[in-house]
Amino acid sequence: MVIIGAGECGGRAALTLRDLGYEGPVTLVGDEPHLPYERPPLSKEAMTGPAPAIKSITSDAVLAERSIRHIHSVRAVAIDRAERLVRLSDGSSLRYDKLLLATGSLPRKLPMPGLGERCVYLRTFNDALAIRAHLNPKNRVAIIGGGFIGLELAASSRKLGATVTVIEAQPRILMRGVPAEIAAVIHKAHEAESVTILAGQGIEAIADDGKEVRISLTGGQQIVADLAVIGIGAVPVTGLAAEAGLAVDNGIAVDAELRTADPDIFAAGDCCSFPLAAYGGRRVRLEAWRNAQEQGALAAKNMLGAGEAHAAVPWFWSDQYGLTLQIAGLSDEGRSMVRRDLDDGAFILFHLAEDGRLVAASGIGPGNAVARDIRLAEMLIAKRAAPASEALGSQTVKLKSLLAA
Amino acid sequence: MSDWIEACKADDIDEEDVKRFDHGGRTFAIYRSPDDEYFATDGLCSHEKVHLADGLVMDDIIECPKHNGRFNYKTGAAKGAPVCVNLRTYPVKVDAGKVLIQIG
């Protein structure tokens, strides 16, 4: 078993193969120097913690004990499907019976000239270290892109005292996948922390002299910053698959069992697009920690012949200041919304399809105020339940009781 | 062994639910199972120190509100990724409508 990509997904797949009792060779190949680690803390605790600690999902000792070979700092450069070989950047090659591509995604590049060493992206722990070094009360940070990474970094930068400006081309922050009501709560929280949010502003030009970045906006304003962090989305890493003749459709195209058209090659996590059963097989690609984890485990099962279809409901979260947002399901499938207010200003929006089926729930509140209800909503979505709007909207009706119905 | 300490009233927790209890600088989670028994564990998830009292109880399982790490709250056993370290459990008894916990 060979796994390309040693992130959350690949690491989880390797460990799952052993959990399931597979005793043959397992090789995990990653291009970073680190053990598989969790990426969500990179924009948060890795920035604001007392020391920038990496959160590994395993250890050398566990990998040794479980006979998982981890080849680090090496890229896979080609797949030879006829010979069932993966060629690596160090000149060696690996033979496989089953191959998993867990190659992840990379930050979308800002397609304009003028970017220099003060214009950076966040994907890896080493990227996080480089950004962290600039976050202090003397520095001005410009964040290009009002999505999750950008806003979490804005919150972390404020915590460390930097002056922060967020630039978003869309009319509001979090346009993709987050309802306006919830984006407004987050917007307010940033303003209360003295973050300047400039929405509806395209970038006309960037000049980076290695010390300062000058960003000219379409509205005429100019922002000068000591560091510009670009967080405008991610693109799946599909080159290896495409060159091997595998189909790419907004990600390496796999079936419900995460298998490509080649029965011996699987793909999972950020890099793949797959049919989402809960939404009539709609093809999606998810960039989320839990999806990476679940698909890594599912791919491992299916590499061993389980033939199990993906059935999970998408779920993700974001932490900014004391607020946590959680979303289960795909809110763009909804046609109407029902609001449930919880204690402490927390609230949940339930998104209903035309036929009344619950298709998503988006919640925000302090700490983990929305966690339990979002989890129950996720179960209702998985059951394809169509709960009554009045029940969803009333805090006195327990969601758990709707699940039993 | 140390004394029994009152954590809450038996009625304070719904069936198949969980409540937070703080004592002496420590924090705990007290559970009422679907079959109306009471249990107690350390309050914080062993993965990222998130309080389990915000989590969801389903049968014998408490699920962490942050990353869905799962534990059997009766035994403290971690039930798979991302959690791998078991929770410590504590003896619990109900006496005259009060939930008592022996935190030792």
Automatic annotation (TrEMBL), chain B:
Residues of the Rieske domain: 5-101
Annotated protein name in UniProt: MocE family 2Fe-2S type ferredoxin
Family: Belongs to the bacterial ring-hydroxylating dioxygenase ferredoxin component family.
Pfam families: Rieske
Keywords for this protein: 2Fe-2S, Iron, Iron-sulfur, Metal-binding
Organism whose genome encodes this protein: Mesorhizobium abyssinicae
Coiled-coil stretches noted in the UniProt entry, renumbered to this chain: none
Entry cofactors: [2Fe-2S] cluster
The keyword Repeat belongs to this UniProt entry's keyword annotation: no
InterPro entries documented for this protein: MocE_2FeS, Rieske_2Fe-2S, Rieske_2Fe-2S_sf
SUPFAM superfamilies: ISP domain
Cross-referenced CDD domains: Rieske_RO_ferredoxin
